[in-house]
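hey
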């Protein structure tokens, strides 16, 4: 039995191995050399001896992929204009492929070590990176100080340059910052607090201190820059006037409601008797009986604790170039807590199922007014940020 089990396991490994080599061979035959290479590398990384049949296929895919990339580089160099980005990327592909082979070596097939041709590409890569970097830098230069859209294009080009060659020039970071500044729409945020007299608690004052400081890092439009303090070196395109207009605080109050409950429940059985007082029987000889019903009652008292704070206002966007203002966008920040609990008198069986949950609840102590003020201010500010984030300036 053990020999049969071992044979089955061995056959399974052989079948899996054959299936894997067929997949790699099919990819090579189809010209998908990278796919074949990656599949073989994955298998050999797991187990070199188990998947040694992948080794000659790996070499074939490696050689063909390299020949293809080198031929493509030669073709690209003859183009006018030369596609320097593609050339650089091809050299990087060659280098990465070589590194994967070096990490796997030594590789053996049928007891013999299989040799892979590798060469030092550092000079080729350095030359390709330098030429591509020079091209990006030269392309970005005239765009930085052009129109707003051109500055945005320069920002992207310089970002690509920084990714490819972060140490290309010492002025690269400064140029990126300049392109970002010139391509951005600047919005000055001004707070008009018309409810200051009602928000004097410490928590509210702490939030109001930086209320106009809006986070623009998460905005879908990365070209919107929000300032809460004026930078006179910047030409502002828009002004967002935030108005806190109406503050309403409803102190905690308790509403009560009594609900009468009534239900008929079975309390036993009533046996049917004949004229002589004997319990009657049915055809099967069983006692004839019917449920004994009784009406039961209860009184449920519902208690609703409620407390809320509401801050109402608006945001008005003003185009500083044209002097026009958009319609006010209403904003509301609210803090509201509600707790419902209940008690009862009478027979619990009379109570409707829907009241069971609140009967388990208890009275709660609500947070102080300052916490409600704080939450209302925070939700108001979040809605302001959401409104500004949606603006298509």
């Amino acid at each position: 039995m053990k020999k049969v089990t071992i044979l089955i396991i061995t056959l399974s490994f052989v079948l899996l191995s054959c299936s894997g080599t067929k997949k790699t061979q099919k990819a090579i035959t189809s010209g998908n050399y990278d796919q074949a290479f990656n599949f073989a590398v994955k298998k050999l990384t797991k187990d070199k001896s188990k998947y040694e049949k992948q080794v000659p296929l790996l070499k074939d895919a490696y050689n063909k992929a390299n020949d293809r990339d080198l031929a493509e580089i030669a073709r690209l160099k003859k183009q006018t204009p030369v596609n320097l980005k593609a050339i650089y990327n091809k050299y990087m592909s060659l280098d990465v492929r070589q590194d994967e082979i070096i990490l796997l070596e030594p590789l053996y097939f049928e007891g013999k070590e299989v040799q892979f041709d590798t060469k030092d590409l550092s000079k080729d890569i350095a030359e390709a990176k330098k030429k591509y970097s020079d091209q990006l830098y030269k392309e970005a230069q005239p765009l930085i100080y052009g129109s707003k859209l051109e500055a945005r294009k320069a920002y992207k080009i310089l970002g690509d340059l920084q990714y490819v060659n972060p140490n290309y020039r010492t002025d690269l970071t400064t140029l990126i910052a300049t392109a970002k500044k010139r391509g951005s729409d600047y919005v000055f945020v001004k707070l008009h607090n018309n409810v200051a007299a009602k928000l004097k608690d410490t928590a509210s004052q702490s939030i109001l201190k930086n209320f106009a400081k809006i986070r623009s890092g998460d905005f879908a439009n990365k070209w919107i820059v929000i300032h809460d303090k004026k930078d006179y070196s910047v030409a502002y395109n828009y002004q967002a006037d935030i108005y806190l207009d109406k503050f309403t605080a409803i102190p905690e109050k308790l509403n009560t409601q009594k609900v009468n409950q009534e239900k008929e429940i079975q309390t036993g059985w009533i046996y049917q008797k004949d004229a002589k007082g004997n319990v009657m029987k049915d055809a099967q000889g069983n006692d004839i009986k019917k449920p004994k019903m009784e009406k039961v009652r209860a009184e449920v008292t519902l208690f609703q604790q409620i407390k809320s704070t509401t801050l109402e206002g608006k945001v008005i966007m003003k185009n500083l170039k044209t002097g026009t203002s958009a319609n006010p966008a209403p904003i509301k920040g609210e803090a509201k807590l509600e707790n419902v609990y209940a008690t009862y008198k009478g027979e619990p069986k009379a109570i409707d199922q829907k009241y069971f949950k609140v009967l388990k609840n208890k009275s709660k102590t609500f947070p102080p007014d300052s916490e409600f003020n704080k939450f209302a201010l925070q939700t108001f500010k979040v809605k302001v940020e959401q409104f500004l984030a949606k603006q298509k300036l």
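Residues 2-119 form one domain. The radius of gyration is 39 Å.
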